[in-house]
Amino acid sequence: MTSEATEPAGALTLHNALVDDEARTLADDVREGLTAEFKELPPKHLYDTRGAELFEQICELPEYYPTRTERAILERVAGELIAQTGAAELVELGSGSATKTRLLLDAMRSAGTLESFVAVDVTESFVRDSAAELLREYPGLRVHGLIADFERHLDQLPPPRGPRLLAFLGGTIGNFAPAARRRFLRSVCGLLGPDDHLLLGTDLVKDRATLEAAYDDSAGVTAEFNRNILHVLNRELGADFDPAAFEHVARFDTEHEWIEMRLRSREAQQVKLAALELTVAFEAGEDIRTEISAKFTRERVAAELTAAGLVLAAWHTDANGWFALSLARRAG
Ligand code: SAH
Ligand code: TRP
Questions:
Q1: How far apart are CA 188 and CA 178, in angstroms?
Q2: What is the mean pLDDT of residues 210-222?
Q3: DSSP H or E segment with residue 76
Q4: Is the pTM of this model over 0.85?
Q5: Residue 47 in contact with ligand 1 by CB distance below 6 A
């Protein structure tokens, strides 16, 4: 587990920034979230191995339009983005299975600039599997897998190997609360040199029915994904949640322009979390907020980039105006 800057081409390096403090973070987050007046659980713990598999299934659902829409935009504009940025290194935050990544790597290879790829994700299985696959598919590529929290560990990125494109796809930026989003964009701005760019995928505001169906599919996969956090707490913190006793709820909040996902207690119940020596009482119909997914407009994206010291350099959307890819660079 080293991150040597001197690795030869075609090499894979891995670094795990999480080992020491992740169990403590989960315990702290859960204690704070479940003892608050409005109960809340932090979404990054949704993605254990089973959560990762369920998320892959979500991406294929007929109701879940973001993945295929973003992919279609990338298919159209990847060449243009690489020509505009001259990127030699792709750094992907929250890379998941790095499926759409290949469209950018292909464009970099065609342009003759491709040097290296860095995958950053909290989910170890995602980083290990995608890094190994990409190494096989792109002979000569340098691949670095960083198992890390992109809110805390961006200082552990390896030194750049040329003009960098930092990709944050899938609308994951929408999963931050507003203050965390500002913090994150500012820290990204601090990472960018004058030759570097940010490529940001954002889901856009649209009609309620389309939005809510994307987060409450008829096959119930998203409901299972949401409930998976309770399985994680049972396993990691010795909790005794009955996941079936919680209903999945996804509602578009028009004031905040975000989808809010909740787990609603079907009955009055008590849950013990042995590792925290904590018992939590739920009333019938009481909610735990698990995730938000903010929806944007071009004006909002531009304004938030500006507030973080960035400037919008290109805006690409699909014919329906459902999803957008923004290219940004440092202001000035
Ligand atoms: N980029 C992929 C996956 C999006 S899902 C796509 O577009 O399909 C969000 C990804 O971010 C998951 O792989 C999850 O493991 C990761 N993730 C969530 N919170 C994270 C955090 N705090 N730090 C690093 N990765 C995180
Ligand atoms: N970034 C994705 C999104 O906001 C994550 C996501 C998709 C998600 N479906 C979900 C998160 C269901 C929680 C529950 O669209």
A1: 15
A2: 98
A3: helix 65-85
A4: yes
A5: yes
